[in-house]
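Renewal narrative, Specific Aim 1. Our central claim is that a sequence can be written position by position from structural information alone. The example that follows is taken directly from our test logs and has not been curated for this report. It begins with the structure tokens describing the chain, in the order in which they were read.
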């Protein structure tokens, strides 16, 4: 299984956990230069995957709003300004 498939199978929580591990490893002075580059590359790929997923979810989040008749519903984009005002 290659890294792309592994990343696709990971949850966002798992990706963020792995990014924390990578950050800790990069902060460790005993990690060699080649290992640091490999960790940096892995972290960059994970970050790109996470950002893509978050963007996709953000685009998919929609709020049902009732129209004036009360029987019809329309979909409208999620309004971040209204979040938490419920």
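The sequence written for that structure reads:
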């Amino acid at each position: 299984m290659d890294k792309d498939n592994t990343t696709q199978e990971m949850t966002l929580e798992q990706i963020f956990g792995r990014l924390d591990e990578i950050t800790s490893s990069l902060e460790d002075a005993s990690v060699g230069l080649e290992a640091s580059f490999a960790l940096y590359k892995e972290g960059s790929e994970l970050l790109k995957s996470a950002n893509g997923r978050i963007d996709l979810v953000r685009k998919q989040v929609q709020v049902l709003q009732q129209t004036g008749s009360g029987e019809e519903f329309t979909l409208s984009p999620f309004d971040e300004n209204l979040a938490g005002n419920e």
